[in-house]
Amino acid sequence: MIVCVYGKAFAPFVEPVVHDLRVAVATLDAELTAVTIERALAERLRDRTKWVGVRRVYVLPLDVPASLPMGAPSAPSALIRWLFAGAEIVNAFDVHAICWDKPLLTERWLNRGVPVPEGVLTGAIDEANAFIRHHEHVILKAPHSCGGHDHYVVSAVSDGLIAEARGQVYELDLVPPGARPQIRDRQLRYPGPFYLQRLIGDAGRRGTLRPAQLLRAYLVDGQLLFWTERYRPQVRRPSDWIIAAGTGGKYRFLFSVNEEARKLALRAAEVIGLRVGVVDLVRTSTEGVYALSAYTDGHHMMIDREFKRLPEFRDCFDFDRFVAEALVADHPAAAPEAPSA
Predict the structure, then answer these.
(1) Omega of the bond prior to 193 within 30 degrees of 0, cis?
(2) DSSP assignment, residue 86?
(3) Phi, psi for residue 334 in degrees, rounded to 5
(4) Residue 111, SS3?
(5) What's residue 148's pLDDT?
(6) Cα–Cα dist 120/103, whole Å
(7) What is the Cα gyration radius of the chain?
(8) N or C: which end of the chain has fewer CB within 10 A?
(9) 84 SS3 class
(10) Are 241 and 165 in contact (CB under 8 A)?
(11) pLDDT tier for residue 334 given thresholds of 50, 70 and 90
């Protein structure tokens, strides 16, 4: 039995993906059972043998229910393993944790020689200020996030710092750790730790700085399937440099990407053991290619599938079909390089 498990609260966002996975699995003469974590636990409570025959599990966003059966662990990874004992979890929790923790992901890549934009994670306000003023323009990122949420383009000005997101401009005040970010009267009070990355740009024809090319590689079981590019038709303000589907960015398919980008995407995925997911790269005409982030479906996040709405969408871009093949395969693919401690 193959199971896809997700949370009831996430159903409106998750179930279209669940539907496509079920259809794709069915075309391979197999069956995918979709179940919410709430229902799975309830059925396990009634029948302890309910999920004994599960062979593989695919995890989509979920929250651990407040009420759990006696003996059930409260950590998401432990709960799924307890519920589906002995089953292979295709999109592994440890890989998901690395993708979710942006500083940890960057550190892992740096330690294995994967090029990333220059950055810093610090709780020291002076160090953060020095980094911003040295580079003039940086991105302030939430350490745990996806889709560009809680990201700000930060610039140094003569009398302080300004931060911009979604077209709104704020005076930025970096404050010690211990609180949550607060916005009041156009002032953003942002507590440490501060995760900052140099803003990567490309020189335009007239010498003006413009966003570099943002690439996304889609991978399953070590195979690079296809590429998309995220872009904005026009860049009017600093916050437009944050190009994500949730912030007005657009998609298009790319039919050719250079060898440097292809090798980097495969290496970045291999280093973190990414079996099912995407790797985001930024490519410039002068500096080459950097790895930005990686995502996998899991209990915190889900890979954006908005590209399915493009008129150019074809079967060869059907990411869920490739995931279905991994779920149905008689023998698991060779494991990618195990993440180091």
Answers:
(1) yes
(2) T
(3) -55, 135
(4) helix
(5) 58
(6) 9
(7) 21
(8) C
(9) coil
(10) no
(11) very low
pLDDT, mean over the chain: 89
Q: Report whether 132 contacts 196 (CB < 8 A).
A: yes
pLDDT-above-70 percentage for the chain: 91
Q: How many CB atoms lie within 10 A of CB 67?
A: 7
Half-sphere exposure of 104 (CA within 13 A, CB side): 14
How many CB atoms within 10 Å of residue 217? 25
- DSSP letter string, 272-334: HT-SEEEEEEEEETTTEEEEEEEE--SSS-----GGGGSTT--GGG-HHHHHHHHHH-SSPPP
pTM as predicted: 0.90
Pick the closest to residue 30 from 333, 326, 328, 318 (CA basis): 328
pLDDT digits (tens, 9 = 90+) for 130-160: 999 999 889 998 888 766 567 899 999 888 9
Distance separating alpha carbons of residues 86 and 26, to the nearest angstrom: 24
Q: State the Cα–Cα distance between residues 35 and 70, nearest whole angstrom.
A: 21
Q: Is 76 helix (H, G, I), strand (E, B) or coil?
A: helix
Burial of 50 by CB count in 10 Å (0-12 exposed, 13-18 middle, 19+ buried)?
A: middle
Residue the block writes with tokens 């990122």: 141
Q: Is the pLDDT of residue 335 over 50?
A: no
pLDDT in tens, 49-92: 999 999 999 999 999 999 999 889 999 999 999 999 999 999 99
CB-count exposure of residue 308 (10 Å: 0-12, 13-18, 19+): middle
Report the residue count for the chain: 341
| CB atoms closer than 10 angstroms to residue 86 | 10
Confidence bin at 208 (pLDDT 50/70/90)? low
Long-range contacts at 185-189 (CB < 8 A, ≥ 24 apart): 188/152, 188/163
- Closest among 206, 241, 14, 253 to 117, alpha carbons compared: 241
